[in-house]
Amino acid sequence: MKFEKPIVFFDLETTGVDVVKDRIVQIGAIKINPDGERIVKNVLVNPSIPIPAGATAVHGISDADVKDKPFFYQIAKSMFQWLEGCDLAGYNSDNFDIPLLSEEFGREGIDYPGDDTVYIDIIRIERMVNSHKLGDTYKRYLGEELKDAHDAMADVEATLKIFEHQVEQNDLLNLNVSQIAALYSGENSRVDFARKIYQNNDKYYWNFGKHRNELISETQDYADWVLKSDFAYNTKKHIRRILAEIKAQKQ
Fold first, then answer.
1. Coil, strand or helix: which one is 26?
2. Fold type of domain 7-183
3. Taking the domains of the chain in order of start, what are their residue ranges?
4. Which helix (H) or strand (E) holds 72?
5. What pLDDT does 184 receive?
6. Is the pTM higher than 0.90?
7. Angle, to 10 degrees, between the axis of helix 134-142 and the axis of helix 122-129?
8. Higher pLDDT, 130 or 176
9. Residue-averaged pLDDT of the chain
């Protein structure tokens, strides 16, 4: 498969599964440039909050492992520069890794990923052709057990290997990154990373709560409540944009 611009396969290990409240403790990433060059980045991050025992039981990273590591705000600028201009890929990254990464950048005043970023979620491709835990998927394609699962670097290396085998074994995937992403995007377009909003025929709808599938333009009180509540930075950014567009249309 040819890449039209660099693509970064990445995986996050975190303090938990809440994309707004939890924090990154490890970033594992492999950047593939269009010429085939691969650049590996493996970073431990001090999350600035205690790592719960349950999270440590999953990924093996404890408070002691990160106590002398940089905080995210210390690496945010350099990480953004390394990622800027790249497409992104991961395993279940649409639902977790990308929203949480965006939240971390948002706290530092960095709006990332940008609107020109294309996302490849390997699990969504896999659901079109097979079934779906990372370890099971890895064994199916590679014929061996996945070792060191829930280490970010091991997981991202496994994810990249799976993707390479998916492309090799399925003629359907003989496409560029944008075309592959379009295969599973569906009729409704996701607007925010957390999938609280979707777009259909140039109109914006709620994708959760009591106003699910209702127009945002007709539920602006609900939008005001979301902006005042504990929702993701990226979701709030798009709500403000949509409200501004609605206001401009009325003038």
1. strand
2. Nucleotidyltransferase; domain 5 (3.30.420)
3. 7-183, 189-250
4. helix 72-83
5. 66
6. no
7. 60
8. 176
9. 92
